[in-house]
Amino acid sequence: MGDESAAEEFRYEADWDSIRSRYEVPEWFRDAKFGIFLHWGPYAVPAFGSEKYPKRMYIDGISGKSQVNHYAHAEENYGKVGEFGYKDFIPMFKAEKFDAEEWAHLFRKAGARYVVPVAEHHDGFAMYASKHTRWNVAEMGPKKDTMRLLAEAVRSEGMKFGASSHYALNRAYYPKKNPDWDTNDPEYADLYWNPIEKGALPSKEFLDHWWDRTTDIIDQYEPDVLWFDFGLDKPGFDSVHAPILAYYYNKGLDWGKEVVFQDKNMKNESFPEDVIVLDIERGRMADIRELPWQTDTAVGVKSWGYIEDEEYKTSDYLLDELIDIVSKNGCMLLNIGPKADGTIPQEDREIMLDMGDWLALNGEAIYGTRPWKIFGEGPTKVSAGHHSESQNADNVAADVRFTQKNGVLYATSLAWAEGGSFTIESLAKGNPHDSRKIDSVFFVSGGKPVEWKQCKKGLVIEAGEHMPCEAAYVFRIKFAD
């Protein structure tokens, strides 16, 4: 009885040791493997350059991956910058075709197990019914709580629901070099924030406002996942790190559910690595990480939000990336960018459905799995760290990734082998990883048992000449008792 009472009374203190004493990354997250990220806001109205249009429309010059001039685009299409400012896109952001249930159904068909929309980006516009700023989606633009609608729809489809906060960068986001710009008008300081000196640390006023907005998201929407962008790791935010983590984890206790806090600082300077989930932006790990982690990346190359001339990755590439991440104890959070009217671009939709089709056939090698003794084999190297994805080459059939579940080993080749003949060198006779005799090999992707032999050069599998799906090919390997 004493232990039960102590468990009921436990509260996390704003102290790393207190948090470490109790918190573990929940099994549901480790099992989920694949989530959908959503960058959606007024920056979808110009649909140009990138989601950083709110900032770059005040900078006259070429910038961003698109290498375009946002300032010139704004002046050509909307009028003189400063007279027409970012605030003026908000009434044009109507989301008139937004259908939360249709979105959630699509994400479920894509194979996602959790969904994380952006609650507020650097632009300062709250994509939820904020109690601390008038610049929010319930009072302006769509004039409805799209976050609430999406949360209900996602959860009704059996998925977990999260929220991301990028607001920490808002204080230093908008250029203010021209005194006549609306970014310097005190009337709009609650959107653009007050002018600050270069290099200045966040003021108490900003930290308090950040706290109010962040806890408002937590309290209202009870997110299963709370994701933070790089801004929270900037100098001057250290005073809120342990308190916000304790606040969120205590809310999880109040709600009776296990929650996940995600941050990007790989050096563990903001949050110790064992009390949160590390998130890597547009990058991966080179090897298995003992602690669970996540990659956040996007279907698009240029932007996180919707733009009209996006360059899209292939579903084949993204599936290879997902499989590699899972083999190393990670999850993938894949971003799409809906249009301003609330529709999801056809390219985004097709990529998600392709991934869903593959996962429907091969998901047993992904969901609920854990890493094997090695992540895989093959000639194609993976670059590690934030923003490293552009350095990665396409995979070949000799690139194999391993996962395991319930005593079964899964080997997934990341391309089709010539003639359907696959050789897995790490499972050669006498290999150092597993001395047990192989009992059977089943071709999951093809839905059939296959001929195989274990010899000194490897496990040689004859899958037949028919390629049953695109992207990658899964074999279920059982060992003799």
From TrEMBL:
Q: Would I find Chloroplast among this entry's keywords?
A: no
Tell whether Iron-sulfur is among the UniProt keywords: no
Q: Name one GO molecular function term.
A: alpha-L-fucosidase activity
Q: Name one GO biological process term.
A: glycoside catabolic process
Outline the extent of the Glycoside hydrolase family 29 N-terminal domain. 5-364
Give start and end of each Alpha-L-fucosidase C-terminal domain. 394-478
Top EC group: hydrolase
Question: Which is a Gene Ontology cellular component entry for this protein?
Answer: lysosome
Known function: Alpha-L-fucosidase is responsible for hydrolyzing the alpha-1,6-linked fucose joined to the reducing-end N-acetylglucosamine of the carbohydrate moieties of glycoproteins.
Q: PANTHER family per the record?
A: ALPHA-L-FUCOSIDASE, ALPHA-L-FUCOSIDASE-RELATED
What's the name of the protein? alpha-L-fucosidase
> What species is this protein from?
Pelagicoccus mobilis
